[in-house]
């Protein structure tokens, strides 16, 4: 494995600046340890675990599968009955986790706790203003999510080609690019735009180690960049998911005259349905998160094969671009 060195690899203690997204139902020890063993940063998803004690056990399981750094994602979202976030935080700190990714609502209170425990913090944002706020609150790294991403891209619809350099222009802390990245060309582009690493979710779903039924992986490989739906659009909580019969129904309900209330679609988007679909392989069993990067995915490698290939492709693409400049003695500009 070729090693890369920058602020992201130094802060996280990893060999290559490739981070696995904290995906609900997918971010488990099998995948996180495989990514970390391959030189990147694997990520457990805290709220995939039903309770804080379950998270403690999953962290121990991951620690038994890798001696490399891995992180825990804690997504903070509004809810009628919110999860016991404080107890999840205690489980993370007590278990000796050294890296945490936060996402969702303002993480200021939680970041203070993590920083006091000596934990490196990454915060995922979908806008420059939120990224700057996270920097002011003391996070170590910002992960910026372009509109192409799976999950929640925010409500401003700014794609990565604009969002990444904007964030790099204004931030002083390291930046990780997320959304639409699935190969070494995307990684090279992200680095050229000012990021110091990349975050991938959907691409890691289509790996051998992801705890997802192979039928789902095959369906994603056969999909293209057009095969996603934006749901919860009318509820101002947009999410990008795989296009299937369930998400098609959600979109149709949202487009009905008179609008849509969450109760109208609750039965379709229930998390238990999505969890069952990932595990059973029923492509139409529930809502399955996926990004536009589907168009770039055409195989199901191991995590080690994927990272090695990406770094090689990234190096080749950057060298290719550099060669264009080195071969130009003069640039002539004509009116």
Summarize the structure in short.
This protein is 43% helix and 14% strand. It is built from 14 helices and ten strands.
What does this structure look like?
The chain has 335 residues and is α/β, with parallel strands linked by helices. It folds into 2 domains: 7-211 and 299-322, TIM Barrel, CATH 3.20.20.70; 228-280, no CATH class. The chain has helices at 7-12, 29-37, 52-65, 85-94, 108-116, 128-137, 160-170, 184-192, 202-205, 214-222, 245-254, 262-269, 271-280, 303-326, and strands spanning 18-20, 42-45, 70-76, 99-104, 120-125, 141-145, 175-178, 197-200, 228-231, 239-242. It has an 8-stranded parallel sheet with strand order 1-8-7-6-5-4-3-2. The protein is globular and about 60 Å long. The relative contact order is 0.13.
Keywords:
2 domains; alpha/beta; TIM Barrel; two-stranded antiparallel sheet
Q: Separation of termini?
A: 47 Å
The CATH class assignment of the largest domain is Alpha Beta
Total helices: the number is: 14
Low-confidence stretches: none
Q: What is the residue-mean pLDDT, rounded to a whole number? A: 95
Q: Name the helicity range.
A: 40-55%
| CA-based shape | globular
**Beta-strand residue percentage:** 5-15%
Number of strands: 10
Element string (H = helix, E = strand): HEHEHEHEHEHEHEHEHHEEHHHH
Please render the helix and strand layout as text.
Layout: H1 7-12, E1 18-20, H2 29-37, E2 42-45, H3 52-65, E3 70-76, H4 85-94, E4 99-104, H5 108-116, E5 120-125, H6 128-137, E6 141-145, H7 160-170, E7 175-178, H8 184-192, E8 197-200, H9 202-205, H10 214-222, E9 228-231, E10 239-242, H11 245-254, H12 262-269, H13 271-280, H14 303-326
Parallel strand pairs: 1-8, 2-3, 3-4, 4-5, 5-6, 6-7, 7-8
Antiparallel strand pairs: 9-10
């Amino acid at each position: 494995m070729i090693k890369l060195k920058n602020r992201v690899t130094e802060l996280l203690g990893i060999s290559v600046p490739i981070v696995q997204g904290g995906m609900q139902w997918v971010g488990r020890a099998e995948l996180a340890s495989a990514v970390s063993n391959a030189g990147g940063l694997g990520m457990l998803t805290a709220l995939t675990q039903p309770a804080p004690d379950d998270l403690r056990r999953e962290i121990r399981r991951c620690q038994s599968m890798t001696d490399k750094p891995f992180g825990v994602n804690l997504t903070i979202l509004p809810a009628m009955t919110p999860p016991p976030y404080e107890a999840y935080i205690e489980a993370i700190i007590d278990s000796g986790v050294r890296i945490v990714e936060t996402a969702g609502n303002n993480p200021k209170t939680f970041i203070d706790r993590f920083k006091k425990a000596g934990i490196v913090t990454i915060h995922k944002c979908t806008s420059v203003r939120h990224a700057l706020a996270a920097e002011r609150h003391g996070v170590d790294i910002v992960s910026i999510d372009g509109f192409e991403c799976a999950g929640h891209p925010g409500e401003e619809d700014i794609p990565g080609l604009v969002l990444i350099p904007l964030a790099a222009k204004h931030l002083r802390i390291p930046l990780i690019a997320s959304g639409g990245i699935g190969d070494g060309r995307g990684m090279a582009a992200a680095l050229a735009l000012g990021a110091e690493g990349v975050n991938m979710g959907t691409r890691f779903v289509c790996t051998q180690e992801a705890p997802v039924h192979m039928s789902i992986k095959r369906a994603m490989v056969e999909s293209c960049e057009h095969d996603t739906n934006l749901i919860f659009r009318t509820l101002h909580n947009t999410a990008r998911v795989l296009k299937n019969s369930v998400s098609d129904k959600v979109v149709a309900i949202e487009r009905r005259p008179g609008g849509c209330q969450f109760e109208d679609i609750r039965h379709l988007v229930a998390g238990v349905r999505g969890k069952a679909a990932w595990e059973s392989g029923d492509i139409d069993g529930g809502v399955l998160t996926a990004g536009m990067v589907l168009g770039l995915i055409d195989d199901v490698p191991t995590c080690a094969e994927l990272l090695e290939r990406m770094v090689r492709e990234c190096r080749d693409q950057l060298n290719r671009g550099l060669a264009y400049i080195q071969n130009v003695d003069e640039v002539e500009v004509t009116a």
